[in-house]
Write a structure and sequence with these properties.
Strand content: 25-35%
Distance between the termini: 84 Å
Low-confidence stretches: 83-88, 90-108
Shape: globular
Mean pLDDT: 77
Strand order of the largest sheet: 2-1-5-6
Structural class: mainly beta
Amino acid sequence: QHIKEVKLYLDVHPDNDDGSISNVWIMNPTDRKKYNNVEEDIDIMLSTSEIPPGKHTFFVQAEDSNGYLGPVSSIFFDVTESSVSQPSEADPIAPPNNEEPSSQGNGS
């Protein structure tokens, strides 16, 4: 059967999804087309900035076109606190080939 949908869950096993959880995302096929095969490469881009520091688990589960839910895969990961560095004053941009800037006069 063709894959219909793939969901990514944060810290909630798919068996516990009652439809009200907010930390679930639909993953996309990497070819950016709709799901249309029995096997698909998938991806998703998430920011950890909204995930609190600590140990977490991602669970992934696919559903086929007949509504059958496939096995659950999981991966464990840690989110650590990161400090945001303040931008420093930029160094002046050097001229090409590290040459000193020259002033051009008209020779008079």
